[in-house]
Amino acid sequence: MIFNTLEQLKFLADVDRYINLLRRLGSEPSIGAADGASRNMPRVFFVDSVNGATTNGGLSPDRALASIDAAVGQCTSGRNDIIIALPNHVETVSAAAGLALDVAGVKVVGMGTGASRPQIN
Q1: Could you tell me which residue, 42 or 15, shows the higher pLDDT?
Q2: Using DSSP, how many helices (H) and how many strands (E) does the chain show?
Q3: Model confidence pLDDT, tens digit, residues 22-58
Q4: Do 80 and 87 touch, CB atoms closer than 8 A?
Q5: What are the tens digits of pLDDT across the range 58-105?
Q6: What's the CA gap between 89 and 113, in Å, rounded?
Q7: Which residues contact 109 (CB under 8 A, 6 or more apart)?
């Protein structure tokens, strides 16, 4: 995905604000609702097949997970988590079932332009 529309650029700005909020508040921030209950905010997970590892937590680009499937496994249903595939990420899907995005509310976003765009083969 090339980010060139106003809506896409706004989304990136929102992700940037969220990441900065995570740095200030910790890895599991929550917000208070009008009824007094605490609501967990979405988490952002990063994937990078070049520099990522299955042992990483995926919560920052320098600790990225190695695959989208590993990131989906970290997501919580209904929390609207975001998975960001970093530039040059390559995901190879060899099984007939394909890539199982089996957690409700998860968004997968690819970063990069031209030849550096993430690819799913």
Answers
A1: 42
A2: 2, 7
A3: 666 555 555 555 555 556 678 889 999 999 998 999 9
A4: no
A5: 988 889 999 999 999 999 898 888 899 988 999 988 876 678 889 998
A6: 12
A7: 1, 11, 15, 82, 83, 84, 85
Q: What are phi and psi of 44, to 5 degrees?
A: -110, 125
Give the global pTM: 0.71
Distance CA 97, CA 75 (A): 20
- Report the C-alpha gap between 24 and 50 in whole angstroms: 28
Task: Note the Cα 40 to chain centre separation in Å.
Answer: 16
Residue with token string 């706004």: 10
Amino acid at residue number 64: A
Alpha carbons within 13 A on the beta-carbon side of 115: 0
> Would you say how long the chain is, in residues?
121
